[in-house]
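User: C-alpha cells in, sequence out, please.
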C-alpha cells in the first residue's frame, strides 16, 4: 500500500518546531509554550502545503545529555524519527542566531543519510538577518526563511520540499494505480481502530504502547508525567489471521484537578480530553499495585460521558499480590462507582512483559463492534413491547403516560429515541429501567447508551393548524 512521504522537524529546544508542525497540519495538535522542552515524544500528523501531502513528525528538542537520562532518551526518539524520515527540516531561531548547540547537532546530522533543509524560523522583519547570515557556516546552503507563527515563507518552504517529495509522491501514485479493484475497495473500506490509552501519571501507558509496537517508540522512565502531548501512532494488529489497522494514542497522565497547578500540565489535560473525543475505544489503565482510586472513576466517567467505548486494564499485574481478591474488588468497585454502566470489560495485563495484551486488544475490538452496532427494527420492537409489558410506565400525578414506539437514530454510541405522550413526567428510575433492559436483552452490556424521549403533539389540539390550511 502506498504511503505519504515523511518529513521530520528537528532542532534544539524552543526554536518553534511544534509551531511549524501545527501550521503544516492545520490544527493545534502539538502543545506550544515558551518553556523549552515541552515536546518529549515524536508526534505525527497528516500535513498539507498547497498541493503537497505528506506525513510530518515533530520531535523533541536536541540536547547534549547522557543516553540514560530523560533528555538522552528524548534524543534517541529523534534519532529513530530520522531513520524513518524521507526529508529533515533543521529549524533554528533566526533572532537568536546560530548557537554552539546548533553547530554541534549540525555536525551530528551529517552522519544521517537523510536530505536536509535548513529552516530559519522567527525570520519576520529585520531582527533575524544576522542569524540568517550566520547559518551559512553550517554548510547546508541557503536557509528557508519563515515565520511559523504568522505563516510567512510557506511558499519558499514549498519550493524547497518539491524536489525531495515529488518523486516519492509519484511513486506512491503508481502503486495505487496498479491495485486491483478489490484491493482498492479493501484499502478505502478499512478503517483503523482509534484507540486512546488514558490513566493517572505513571500507570504505564507509554510502556504498554511500546510493548504493543515491539519497539521503544515512546520515551519511558521512572519519572511521572514524561508524556505531555497526546501522541498518535499508526499500527497493525493481527486478529483472526487478518492485519487490522489501529491508530494508538498515548496521552498525558490525568491527576485530580485540585493538584494541577502547572500551566503545561493543564494544557496536557485538555489535550488528553481532545484525544478521548477523537477515539472510538478508550483503555483506562490502572496500576494494579495501587488499586482503584477515585481519580480512576472520574476518568472513566469522563470517557463514558463523551459516549466512548471503555475498556479497563489492570496493569503491572505481575507485581500485584492477592490477585483473585484484587480483581474481584476492582470489579465490584467499578460496578458500584459507575452508575450509568455495568460490566465494563476488565482485563489484567502486564505492559512491561506483554502478558495478556492479546486479550486487551480483543476486548478493544469487541467494544468497538458493540459501540457501532445497530439493532433491527423488528428486534427493537420486540424488546420495547416486552419491556412495557413487564413494567408499564407509572401514572405520574394520576395521569397515564403512554409510550408509543422506539427507534435507533444513531450508533457510535448507540442512540435511541422513544416517542410517547407526557414523556417529560417519566421518573429517572424508569429511564434507568429501560436503559438496563436495553443492555441486557439487546447485547449492549458494557457499552454507553444514549436514550432520549420525545413527546407527541395532541392531534385534537385546536391551536394546531389543520393539514392543508394556510397559516399567517
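Assistant: Sequence out:
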Amino acid at each position: 500500500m502506498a504511503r505519504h512521504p515523511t518529513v521530520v522537524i528537528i532542532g534544539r529546544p524552543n526554536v518553534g518546531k511544534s509551531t511549524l508542525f501545527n501550521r503544516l497540519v492545520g490544527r493545534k495538535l502539538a502543545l506550544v509554550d515558551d518553556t523549552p522542552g515541552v515536546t518529549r515524544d515524536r508526534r505525527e500528523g497528516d500535513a498539507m502545503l498547497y498541493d503537497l501531502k505528506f506525513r510530518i513528525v515533530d520531535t523533541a528538542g536536541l540536547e547534549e545529555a547522557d543516553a540514560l537520562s530523560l533528555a538522552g532518551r528524548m534524543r534517541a526518539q529523534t534519532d529513530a524519527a530520522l531513520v524513518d524520515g524521507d526529508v529533515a527540516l533543521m529549524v533554528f531561531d533566526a533572532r537568536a542566531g546560530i548557537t554552539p548547540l546548533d553547530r554541534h547537532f549540525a555536525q551530528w546530522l551529517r552522519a544521517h543519510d537523510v536530505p536536509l533543509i535548513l529552516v530559519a524560523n522567527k525570520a519576520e522583519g529585520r531582527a533575524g538577518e544576522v542569524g540568517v547570515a550566520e547559518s551559512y557556516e553550517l554548510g547546508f546552503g541557503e536557509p528557508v526563511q519563515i515565520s511559523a507563527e504568522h505563516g510567512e515563507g510557506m511558499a519558499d518552504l514549498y519550493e524547497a520540499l518539491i524536489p525531495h517529495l515529488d518523486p516519492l509522491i509519484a511513486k506512491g501514485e503508481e502503486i495505487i494505480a496498479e491495485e486491483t479493484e478489490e484491493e482498492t475497495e479493501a484499502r478505502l473500506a478499512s478503517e483503523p481502530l482509534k484507540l486512546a490509552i488514558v490513566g493517572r501519571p505513571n500507570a504505564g501507558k507509554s510502556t504498554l504502547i511500546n510493548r504493543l509496537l515491539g519497539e521503544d517508540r515512546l520515551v519511558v522512565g521512572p519519572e511521572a508525567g514524561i508524556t505531555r502531548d497526546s501522541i498518535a501512532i499508526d499500527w497493525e494488529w493481527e486478529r483472526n489471521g487478518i492485519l487490522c489497522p489501529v491508530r494508538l494514542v498515548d496521552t498525558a497522565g490525568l491527576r485530580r484537578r485540585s493538584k494541577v497547578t502547572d500551566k503545561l500540565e493543564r494544557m496536557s489535560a485538555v489535550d488528553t480530553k481532545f484525544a478521548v473525543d477523537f477515539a472510538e475505544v478508550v483503555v483506562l489503565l490502572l496500576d494494579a499495585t495501587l488499586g482503584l482510586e477515585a481519580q480512576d472513576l472520574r476518568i472513566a466517567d469522563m470517557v463514558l460521558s463523551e459516549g466512548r467505548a471503555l475498556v479497563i486494564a489492570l496493569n503491572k499485574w505481575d507485581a500485584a499480590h492477592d490477585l483473585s481478591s484484587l480483581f474481584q474488588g476492582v470489579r465490584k468497585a467499578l460496578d458500584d462507582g459507575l452508575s450509568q454502566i455495568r460490566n465494563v470489560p476488565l482485563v489484567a495485563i502486564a505492559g512491561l512483559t506483554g502478558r495478556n495484551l492479546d486479550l486487551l486488544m480483543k476486548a478493544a475490538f469487541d467494544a468497538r463492534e458493540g459501540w457501532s452496532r445497530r439493532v433491527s427494527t423488528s428486534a427493537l420492537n420486540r424488546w420495547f413491547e416486552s419491556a412495557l409489558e413487564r413494567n408499564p410506565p407509572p401514572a405520574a400525578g394520576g395521569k397515564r403516560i403512554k409510550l408509543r414506539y422506539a427507534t435507533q437514530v444513531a450508533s457510535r454510541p448507540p442512540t435511541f429515541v422513544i416517542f410517547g405522550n407526557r414523556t417529560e413526567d417519566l421518573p429517572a428510575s424508569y429511564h434507568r429501567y429501560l436503559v438496563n433492559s436495553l443492555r441486557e436483552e439487546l447485547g449492549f452490556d458494557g457499552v454507553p447508551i444514549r436514550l432520549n424521549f420525545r413527546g407527541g403533539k395532541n392531534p385534537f389540539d385546536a391551536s394546531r393548524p389543520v393539514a392543508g390550511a394556510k397559516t399567517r
